[in-house]
Amino acid sequence: MNAPAESTRSTPQSKARLRLWLRLLGVTRKIENELRDKLRREHDTTLPRFDVMSALHRHPDGLRMSELSGVLKVSNGNVTGIVDRLTEEGLVERVAVPGDRRAMMARLTERGQTVFIGQAAEHEAWIDGLFAEMDADEARIFANRLGELAELLETRGETQ
Amino acid sequence: MNAPAESTRSTPQSKARLRLWLRLLGVTRKIENELRDKLRREHDTTLPRFDVMSALHRHPDGLRMSELSGVLKVSNGNVTGIVDRLTEEGLVERVAVPGDRRAMMARLTERGQTVFIGQAAEHEAWIDGLFAEMDADEARIFANRLGELAELLETRGETQ
DNA sequence: ACCGCATACTTCAACCTTAAAATATTTGTC
DNA sequence: GACAAATATTTTAAGGTTGAAGTATGCGGT
Fold this sequence. Notes:
CATH topology of chain A: Arc Repressor Mutant, subunit A
Oligomer: homodimer
Number of domains of chain A: 1
Number of helices of chain A: 6
Structural class of chain A: mainly alpha
Strand order of the largest sheet of chain A: 1-3-2
CATH class of chain A: Mainly Alpha
Strand content of chain A: 5-15%
Shape of chain A: globular
Helix content of chain A: 55-70%
Order of helices and strands of chain A: HHEHHEEHH
């Protein structure tokens, strides 16, 4: 508790970390932009729609709306809108949760599954291409290190 | 040219790279959310506003609107709106570019600089805290590797 | 059974974001 | 110099995103 005046002074260390953060952000945006572009042009869909369908595909029994927003790290109100649109298009359906009339499960329709599988295969190939310069071992090391970081951010977030 | 049927098959390699991408995305979102929250609560501003001011601070003579959107990796129309609002608040000003009446430079006002400096010091300290688990050397290695990746994505993007 | 608080979701206003169309200006070509 | 193509920016329509307010339901204590 009560951090000792958590210095706001700039040090070589904090500069190095800031630089890392800016790189992380830059690379992520660049890749997101490429994926967005490809999804729009080749599958007439958007990144948020794809993200929702992807999360639902990993959970065939469906996810509660709040679980969905938790997984995607976006707000509750946000997923409401995206699921609305996907529902209109017949790709996703809302299912009542027995025993809790407040809750709703979102899950892929049969058509949603078919559509998603087509998108997902290409998506994976695009990523594979974008990271081609990095061999699988290095990718694994990177991913593991980021995983540790993510876990730390997660637990720290809860405490705060 | 003409990649040999650029396979859409899923391999252990592509899985590893996909996993890396998802981690990258997850960590970036998590950090963005924390920063957004802190900027809102402690400086009554938003991440996009901060990003624009940050870019302008790194270029004291100002940036053309198109350079600004290029640096931030967002669309032209996007920065128009953000600069509009920052201008209304007296933090940024548009300056005509001598010799090209189509172009506009955006730059921080004196007040914008003062305000930004206050935000930036804390921002750097927040990042420092979020990446505390990672020592400076590791941060440098990570940043360099991401830099190589970014460069590759950049050059590849142009060709495509 | 009632009450108060918590939970799950939706709605809302404001802002962010994109892609495409529109506007204004420059540049190259004849 | 006129004109077509290119460039820099803004505008527009549609969708995405947030935080806060609103609605409905659940839950625990009395």
